[in-house]
Amino acid sequence: MEVFKQLKEYYWSEKRFMYASILSLMTATALGLVYPNLLRYLIDHVIAKQQFAEVPYLALVVVGIITCKALFQYLHGFFSGRLGNQTAYNLRNALYKKLQYLSFQYYDKARTGDLMSRLTADLQAVRDFIGFGFVQILNVFMMFTFGAIMMLTINWKLTLITMVSMPFLVFTAVRFEGKIHPAFRSVRKSMSNMTTSVQENITGVRTVKSFAREPYEIEKFSERNEDYKMNNVTTSGIWAKYFPLMELFANLSVVILLATGGWMVIQKTLTLGELVAFFSLMWYIIGPMWQIGFHINNFTQSKAAGERLLEILHQYIHVKDKDTAVSLQANEVQGHIKFEKVSFAYPDQKSALQDFQLDAPAGSVIGLLGGTGSGKSTVIQLLLRAYNIKEGSIKLDGRDIRDIKLESLREHMSIVFQETFLFSSSILNNIAYGVRNVSMEQIIQAARLAKAHEFIMEMPLGYETIVGERGMGLSGGQKQRIAIARALLKNPKILILDDATSAVDMETEHEIQLGFQELMKGRTTFIIAHRISSLKHADEIVVLDKGIVVQRGTHQQLMKQPGRYLETYKIQFADQPITSEDQGELNQTPQAPDEAEAFIQTAVAGSDNGGYKL
Ligand SMILES: Nc1ncnc2c1ncn2[C@@H]1O[C@H](COP(=O)(O)OP(=O)(O)OP(=O)(O)O)[C@@H](O)[C@H]1O
C-alpha cells in the first residue's frame, strides 16, 4: 500500500467521490443480503406453512430490493468513474509538469516510448484501481463480514465448520500476490521496451528505409515482442497454477456445507429454509473470495504501474532554482558573459571542457570553432544552465547564473539549435513560440530577417501552413530559417547560434548573416560554426580541441598565427580566391606548411581529433 500512500495527494482531494462510491456499494451489498433471508422466509414460513397469499407481497419486496440495488450500483459506478478520472487528470497534469521541469540530464537517458507507456497504460492501471479496484476490494471484505455475521446468527457451528477451508484460500491468495507482482512488473517493462522500439522505428523510418534495414528492425521488434509474450506466458502460468487451487478451496467449503448442513437438516437441528439461506450466503462469501485473485491481479498491476509513475514524480531535478535566486528585469540585463575556469564532464563521461575562460562584454560577438566533440555545444549548454557545473563559475553581468532564476536566465537568451524542432502547428505559431503578445508585423519582420518570408508566402496557406510532426514537408534549410525567425522574434539580450546555418546553402547563409549583423547589434552573440566565413567578424574567436582552448583571438590575429584556425581557413578557402583583406594577413603569417598539410590529412582521415567538419 506504500505506493498508494505516496500517490495520496492525487486522489485524496477527491475523497468525497470515494466516500460516496463506498457508501453506494455498501448499500447495494447490504441489500443483496436480504435475498437469502427472503428465501429462508419463503421456505420456512410461506411454503412449509402454506401461506401462499404472502407470495405477491414477497415478489413486490424482491422487485423493490432489486430496483434499489440497481440504483446504488449505478451510483457506485458513477462516483467511482468520477474518482478514477479526476485522479487520472490530477496525475497526468502532475506528470506532465514534472516532465517539463526535469533537467537535460534526465532526458539524456530517457526513452520516449517508455515515457509514453508510463503516461498511458500505467496511468490507466492506477486510475482503474483507485476508481474501482480499491472499492471492490473493500466490498470483498464487507461481503465477507456481513455474510459471516448473518451465517453466525443462523447457526454458528455450521458457520465455523464451513469456514474451515477459508484460511487455505486466503493463504493461497497471498502467495499468489507475491508471485504475480514481480511478473506483472516484467510485463510492464517489456511492454515499454516494445513501445520504445515502435516509437523509435516510426521516428527514424527514413533512416531505416535508406539503409534498407527493415528486416533488422522487424527482427529487433520480434525479439521484444517475444520477450513481452514470454513475460505474459509466465504470468499466465502463475495464474494457471494458483487459480484452480483457490477454486478448489472455495468449492471445498460448499461441499462441507452441503454434507454437514444436510446432515443437520436430517437431524432437525437446522430447518430447510436455513440450509438454503446458508447455501446462498456461502456463495455470497465465496463469490468475492473467488474474485480475490482478480482483485489481487488488479491491485498488483496498478501497484507496479504506480511505482513507475512515482519514479517520474520522485525523479531528482538536477538543475533548479536556489531559494535566493533572483529574476532579472529586461532593462537591467546588459549581456556581459564571463566563464571563469569552468571544467565540466557529462555524468559518467570523461571531461568535456577544461579550465574554460571567456570574457564576452555586452554586445560582443564570440565565435566558437573546433572539431566534432570538441566542446562547443557544451559551452552553450552550460551558459543555458542545462547542466550544473561543479568547477568554476559562469556570470551574467557579474552575477553567478546559479543565483538567477532559470526561467529568467533563459528568457534573455535565444538559441537556434543545430537540429531544428518544429511543433505540429502553423508556421505562425512556430515562429511566435516563446513570445507573448506579438504582432503579425513583428512576426513578418523576423521571418524577413531570417530569409524565410519569401518561401512562406509561396505556400498555399502562407503563415497558416501547418507543418507536420518534426516539420515534415519543409526542407532542412527552410526549417532552420523558421527556427532563426523564432529566435529573432524573442529579441534576446544573448543570441546563440549553434551551427544554425549548417543546413542552408552558402548564399543563403551569407544573406542570413547580413541580417544577423544588423540583429547582433546590442546583443551578446555566440556563434558556433564550422565555416570560417560565419565567424570571421566575431570580436573573439575561441578554437577548441577536446574541451581545451587551443587558440583565441580575432580573425586577423588568428590568421597571423600558425595553428588550427589558419589551417581550417586554408582548407575551406583552398578553391576560392582569397580576399585582399585576408591576403594581406596571409602574407604576414609565419607559415607552417608542413603542419598545415599534416592537419589537412588528419582532418580528412578523421583521426582522433575527431576530424574538423569542413
Ligand atoms: N548529453 C551528453 N551526454 C554525455 N556526453 C555528451 C553529451 N553531449 C556531449 N557529450 C560529449 O561531450 C563532448 C563535447 O561535446 P559537444 O557536443 O560539446 O561537442 P561539439 O564541439 O559541439 O561537437 P559538434 O560539432 O559535433 O556538435 C563529446 O565528447 C560528446 O560526446
From TrEMBL:
Membrane topology of the entry: Multi-pass membrane protein
GO molecular function: ATP binding
Pfam families, A to Z: ABC_membrane (PF00664), ABC_tran (PF00005)
This protein's UniProt keywords: ATP-binding, Membrane, Nucleotide-binding, Transmembrane, Transmembrane helix
Domain ABC transmembrane type-1 residues, every copy: 20-301
Tree of life domain: Bacteria
InterPro entries registered for this protein in UniProt: AAA+_ATPase, ABC1_TM_dom, ABC1_TM_sf, ABC_transporter-like_ATP-bd, ABC_transporter-like_CS, P-loop_NTPase, Type_1_exporter
Keyword ATP-binding included in the entry's annotation: yes
UniProt KW Transmembrane keyword: yes
Residues passing through the membrane, by range: 17-35, 55-72, 129-152, 248-266, 272-293
Stored PROSITE patterns: ABC_TM1F, ABC_TRANSPORTER_1, ABC_TRANSPORTER_2
Predominant location category: membrane
Entry's localization field: Cell membrane
Domain ABC transporter stretches: 337-571
Name of the molecule in the record: ABC transporter ATP-binding protein
Source organism (scientific name): Paenibacillus agricola
